[in-house]
Automatic annotation (TrEMBL):
Subcellular location: Cell membrane
Transmembrane regions: 28-51, 90-111, 123-144, 285-305
Entry similarity comment: Belongs to the binding-protein-dependent transport system permease family.
Recorded topology in the membrane: Multi-pass membrane protein
The protein's name: ABC transporter permease
GO BP field: transmembrane transport
Keywords: Cell membrane, Membrane, Transmembrane, Transmembrane helix, Transport
GO cellular component terms given for this protein: plasma membrane
Length: 315
């Protein structure tokens, strides 16, 4: 009779299996803190806001919730101030975003050349972004003063009568847009500058050998190379314009955006409904309208960019 000894388990197999499991789970462990914080402070408030928007909730009695369904949304569509704030958000967004990105692109193009003291200029151009929005807006409110403002003083020197920057619809929107342009132009210029420095220098050398001027190099080399960066800044600026709040609030210190709501944005309108009139349900509905509006604008930008890329690839 032959006896065979049973094979003992290899002690090294257990640590190897543990290491294998850890290699599979470690990526999820590394990203778990971010997604946990996002779920707690991003996803849950978003879902709860959608839930509150279906109820009638007052700030004084937040525990008393009365089911309204979509009535908060239909009430918004019937409110003329909602359409006014939506129109103001669009016009201020265009007045601030388009000049801001064009100026940022020009500044980045200048700073991309070898200039004396360019490190200082690259640092100084970011100072408006680092400035407090409250301090910047209060200073600009004094500059745009009707009676003693520096802007009207300069206009008077060239024979132009004083402008009431806080009462006029177009004038007040231009003033608010100027604050946004001043704060964000340098930030976008540095983003464009980083994108320009990633473009291979050989492309510029080849274009120069072909006799292309600096303007043609900018049009045919710089702009195509910056297309992803430009799309990014357009999307981020669009989101920022939709959520504009601090500048119009502090420009005159009124949540109504002027006497006739001439520069009230959707952010101010939401604040007025929630913390001015205590209608938390309607404020939640406005927040979700802003969220859906941002999704629509970002989707439209992505669709236009994709179609343009397909046309360029088909050539």
């Amino acid at each position: 009779m032959t006896l065979t000894a049973s094979a003992r388990p290899n002690p090294a197999s257990r640590p190897s299996s543990i290491r294998r499991v850890w290699r599979q789970l470690s990526p999820y462990a590394y990203i778990a803190p971010f997604f946990s914080l996002f779920a707690a402070f991003g996803l849950f408030p978003l879902i709860y806001t959608a839930y509150v928007s279906l109820y009638r909730v007052e700030l004084q009695t937040p525990g008393d919730m009365e089911w309204r369904g979509l009535d908060n949304y239909t009430a918004l569509l019937a409110d003329e101030f909602f359409w006014t704030s939506l129109r103001n958000t669009f016009t201020i967004g265009v007045l601030s975003t388009v000049p801001q990105l064009v100026m940022a692109l020009g500044l980045a193009h200048v700073l991309n050349y070898k200039l004396r003291g360019r490190t200082f200029f690259r640092t100084a151009i970011l100072l408006p972004y680092a400035t407090s929005v409250a301090a910047a807006t209060l200073v600009f409110a004094q500059l745009f003063g009707r009676d003693f403002g520096l802007i009207n003083y300069g206009l008077g020197l060239v024979g132009i009568s004083p402008v009431d920057w806080q009462t006029g619809t177009v004038a007040s929107q231009i003033a608010v847009s100027t604050i946004v342009i001043w704060r964000w132009t340098g930030y976008n210029a540095l983003i464009y500058l980083a994108g320009m420095q990633s473009i291979p220098h050989e492309l510029y050398e080849a274009a120069e050998m072909d006799g292309a001027s600096r303007w043609r190099q900018f049009v045919h080399v710089t702009l195509p190379g910056l297309r992803p960066t430009i799309v990014f800044t357009v999307i981020v600026s669009t989101i920022g314009a939709t959520q504009l709040f601090g500048e119009p609030l502090l420009f005159e210190g009124s949540v109504s955006g002027g006497i006739s709501h001439q520069y009230q944005t959707l952010g101010l309108y939401m604040y007025e409904q929630g913390w001015g009139f205590f209608h938390l349900g309607r404020a939640a509905a406005i927040a979700w309208v802003m969220f859906l509006l941002i999704l629509a604008l970002v989707g439209a930008n992505a669709l236009i960019t994709r179609r343009h890329s397909r046309k360029e690839a088909g050539r």
